[in-house]
Amino acid sequence: MDSHGKEDLIEPTRHSVTYGSYLKVRELLSLQTPLTVPEQHDEVLFIIIHQVYELWFKQILHEAKKAAAAIDADNLMLFNRTAHRIQSIQTILTHQVGILETMTPSDFNTFRDRLNPASGFQSWQFRELEFYLGYKDAAYMKFHKNDPSAFAALETALAAPSVYDRFLRLLKRRGFAIPDDVISRTISDNYQANDQVCQEIVKIYKQSDKYYDLYSALEAMIDLDEGVLLWRQRHVAMVERMIGNRRGTGGSSGVSYLSKTLSKRFFPDIWDARNYIGDSEYGRK
Length: 285
Ligand code: HEM
Fold this sequence. Notes:
The chain has 15 helices and no strands. By secondary structure, the chain is mainly alpha-helical.
């Protein structure tokens, strides 16, 4: 008779590590505390989905730090593998917006007022990721001024070279003509697209066989940038169907503000390089 492998099951002893103790499942399941009384059904979904996002943001930051160290160590193979993992997570982040979209605007309005003034603006991990990848805007720090540990994490990310800064240093080490003022720029300022850097990137694209590891790294970086962009697009579309053009709980103009963030790029020169790749004159800048 087919035992379905049951003879392999080992009963845990009183002292062994268990699924629940290792993963702290009980603690995890006690962390969803809706504010509505009586409890509104969809508030639990709203809490869980945000918590899941924050867990994935934590993992992405963990991976982004590894990816940055790989660039510093000239290990582009490791950088590419790590970026690929981040990209897989990003796909899930974008896709799971659809779960929230099963909630109607009227469902949302059964608890929205209770959230005020909490807002995605206060997601320090999201902002940390923006800073760490390469888009720095110190104006967002004000949303964290009452949260010392979040503020400190963001100050550290602002002061650290971004993934892009590190990549440009690597290009310089490899003999590419990256201008000195780009390398010695004030790290906490937002990076400004640079024509000379763009042309060095175009060289890599045009000789992809010769520079294969750099070429692959550039494509991995575009994947990451596009991954965040796709999330932003999906988020803003979901926000519009949920609250129309009303203001956000964080005080912004809502959809109008979020639409402006769609032009943010972590690696602007890699995008600009697209205008010069290929032999055709059509559509050239
Ligand atoms: C009903 C669902 C949601 C609505 C209506 C909504 C609405 C908004 C609005 C209006 C903003 C602009 C800031 C403000 O004025 O508050 C915003 C920002 C943001 N939201 Fe959401 N959101 C929703 C779900 C989510 C989820 C599930 C996440 C996942 C973490 C999220 C993350 C963020 C982040 C990170 C920002 C800052 C974006 C930036 O500044 O670029 N939101 N959201």
